[in-house]
Amino acid sequence: MSGSALQRVFAPCAPGLEPALARELDALGLSARALAGGAEAEGPDAWAVACLGSRTADAVKARLWEGPASGVLAARRELARRMPGVELESRREGDRATLSGDAAGAPLFKRGWRARVGAAPLRESLAAGLLLELEYDGSVPFLDPMCGSGTIAIEAALLAGRRGPGLGRSFAFEGWPGHDASRTGAVRERLAALSRDPPAPVLASDRNGGAVRLAGKNAEAAGMARFVRIERHDAADVAPTPGPGVCLVNPPYGIRLDREVEESWRSLGSLLGRLSGWTVGVLAGDAAVARSLPGKPVRVLEVQNGGIRCGFLVYTP
Fold first, then answer.
1. For 37-40, which contacts have Cβ atoms below 8 Å and span 24 or more sequence positions?
2. Is 246 within 8 Å of 140 (Cβ atoms)?
3. What is the pLDDT of residues 251-293, one digit of tens each?
4. Would you state the CATH architecture of domain 6-107+167-192?
């Protein structure tokens, strides 16, 4: 079954990022549409393409059977015979049903480079999805002035460098009966050939020295240390280059962190006024504190970060 060129997947993602994920899968050469909780896509070698190339997906569910709900038991028996050991997930909508298998085998947001995480970790897939929401492609400078463990800046560098997020991993579907290793190898080679040095600076800073050191270790582990400039600064003291540029920041908020929250947001507000010509995305878990920022966002997207409902505020100062 997995040797067939045309395949279908459902890729779950963080709530709110479904359209960004669908656009990403389209850009990877699949035909995708956003659904609640993720995106559905189909195309040649879709399992490999989504696992190896998607930055925003948290998982990839291979659609192994679709049909009338009355036939699901027989289909399950047949798949268990043809694909022993593959755990099947059943989903029913009205009189239709699907059977899927976990093509990735492990969460896609676990890129494998994190040495340690900071106090309020952000999933790599969420960071990447927010970068895509800001239409960041690496062609302009990037800044994260509250970088913590460096997740956002590292994902920005990987995106700017067109490094396939799954190229250093193996996936469950590669061990399924009928898997065509030559086709998956061709997808790997195609994605690897896109790699480049990021064309514009990727800048990260934090006022906490421990965070700066941790971000440096993570950048080294991700193989991006020479492309991410990490410095110790308070956000209020950052001297941004003239726009255009993209800034993405995940400030502390009281739900998770209650120390110096207001001071951090004041520093961010001071910086925001000096980012003329930039596109700025702020992940805000505390609406009251976020209102302290100058100006009004041009767009607000509802997302979730670690189960916390957040507003993703987009500014164009």
1. 37/12, 37/13, 38/10, 38/11, 38/12, 38/13, 39/10, 39/11, 39/13, 40/8, 40/9, 40/10, 40/11
2. yes
3. 987 654 565 788 899 999 999 999 999 999 999 987 777 888 9
4. 2-Layer Sandwich (3.30)
Spatial separation of the C-alpha atoms in residues 27 and 50, rounded to whole Å: 11
- In sequence order, the 6+-apart residues with CB closer than 8 A to the CB of 58 are 11, 12, 13, 14, 107, 108, 109, 123, 125
Calculate ∠ Cα 130-136-137, nearest 5°: 130
Q: Where are the domains of the chain?
A: 6-107+167-192, 124-161+196-315
Q: What region does 85 belong to: left with phi over 0, alpha with psi -120 to 50, or beta? A: left
Each residue's pLDDT tens digit, 68-98:
999 999 999 999 999 999 999 999 999 999 9
Q: CA 69 to CA 75: how far, in whole Å?
A: 10
Q: Which residues pair with 302 in a beta bridge?
A: 311
Structure tokens at 165: 């997020």
Task: Tally Cβ neighbours within 10 Å of residue 198.
Answer: 22
* Helix (H), strand (E) at residue 176: none
Round to whole Å and give the CA distance between 56 and 124: 8
For β-strands 228-232 and 31-35, DSSP reports them as unpaired
For 1, the token pair is 């079954």
Report field, pTM of the whole predicted structure over 0.90: yes
List strands edge to edge, sheet with 61-68: 31-35, 38-44, 6-12, 61-68, 96-102, 88-93
| Contact call for residues 315 and 272 (beta carbons, < 8 A) | yes
Distance (Å) of CA 118 to CA 94, 123, 193, 228, 235: 44, 12, 33, 18, 18
The domain made up of 124-161+196-315 has a fold known as Rossmann fold (3.40.50)
